[in-house]
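Thanks for the sequence, V.! I ran Putative membrane protein right away. Repeating your input here for the record:
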Amino acid sequence: MTPTPEKDPRVYFAAERTFLAWIRTGLGLMGVGFAVARFGLFLRQMRASETHSVVRSSGLSLWSGVAIVFLGVVVLISSVTQHLALIRELSTGSWVPGRVSRNAVILALLLALVGLGMSIYLLVLR
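Predicted structure:
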């Protein structure tokens, strides 16, 4: 039996909706990363205005913000390659149903690690 290309346009529309959801996720990560990076600058300015002196910072918010922005970029690039591969598989009839989204699992684990790190940081900072 030869594989047949997918003819139902709803399948392609669903793939496009999934792709757009990944784009929103990547953009959201980039926005949160930018806010995290700038929040450290905001806190430093607030402390400097209270003490009227130069306040040094560890730069943790800057580096963690940059890392989250970079994660958003990785999500966007990964979503493009995954979407193109999926469309190719649907067009050639080689798509296998029931596969786990490796990208979603990896992103969830990375974000869980980021959340764990932030929790530990907040506990230590108390």
